[in-house]
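User: I've been trying to design a sequence by hand for this structure and keep getting stuck. Would you show me what you'd pick, starting by listing the structure so we're on the same page?

Assistant: Good idea, let's start from the same input. This is the structure you sent:
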């Protein structure tokens, strides 16, 4: 297809370039329908798994359960759907929502992880915080799956499946997060090296994307995410 992408006029505020200059009803509708179906499917699977866990029928195991296979299959199916949707209609959710929402959805995800890990590794140089922070961490541990599913799936459908360096690294990182979200109630989901890798890969992603931007802000992203690694995670 011959797509004309949006361009920023001289002196105008920055826009996300990878969206159609003249979107159609179907370019918008297919993105939102695909996103909604993906979102509701994963929320329903998480809800079902938690209900089974509440009655003792969903223990943590080293093998995949049928509901994990269903979640993995759904994730793969929606990845393929977004690929086809991009190559047919191009637009993602970026046409209708601002760019900062996609970035901050994942930033908040990482902050929730820090909150959840407060009791085990602390928040600042290994020192755990008590009081409402500890109580909030308990709530986050029970319900984080719903927010994490929203953050990753929303970000995934925000962008069209482009092949720039930033998009490819971003989609790879997002797919790893969706993989983690499909491994609920398995030992792999709790593996500390795996989860730490997911937390720190944002450093590589953030720096690589920033290096492709004219603002040359990659040192800020590198120092910021590197500082979080040292202060909260090590």
């Amino acid at each position: 297809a011959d797509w004309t992408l949006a361009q920023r006029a001289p002196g105008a505020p920055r826009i996300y370039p990878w969206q159609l200059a003249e979107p159609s009803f179907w370019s918008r509708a297919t993105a939102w329908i695909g996103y909604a179906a993906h979102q509701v499917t994963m929320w329903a699977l998480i809800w079902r798994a938690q209900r089974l866990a509440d009655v003792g029928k969903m223990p943590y195991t080293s093998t995949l359960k049928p509901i994990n296979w269903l979640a993995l299959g759904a994730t793969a199916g929606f990845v393929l759907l977004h690929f086809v949707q991009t190559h047919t209609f191009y637009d993602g959710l970026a046409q209708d929502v601002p760019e900062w929402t996609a970035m901050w959805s994942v930033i908040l995800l990482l902050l929730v992880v820090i909150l959840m890990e407060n009791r085990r590794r602390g928040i600042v140089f290994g020192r755990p915080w008590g009081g409402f922070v500890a109580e909030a961490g308990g709530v986050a541990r029970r319900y984080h799956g719903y927010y994490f599913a929203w953050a990753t799936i929303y970000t995934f459908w925000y962008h069209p499946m482009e092949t720039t360096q930033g998009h490819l690294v971003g989609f790879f990182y997002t797919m790893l997060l969706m993989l983690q979200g499909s491994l609920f109630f398995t030992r792999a989901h709790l593996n500390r090296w795996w989860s730490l890798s997911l937390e720190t890969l944002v450093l590589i992603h953030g720096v690589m994307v920033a290096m492709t931007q004219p603002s040359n802000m990659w040192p800020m992203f590198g120092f910021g995410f590197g500082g979080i690694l040292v202060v909260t995670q090590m």
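That's my pick for every position. To get oriented when you compare it with your attempt: The chain is about 70% helix and 0% strand. The mean pLDDT is 90.
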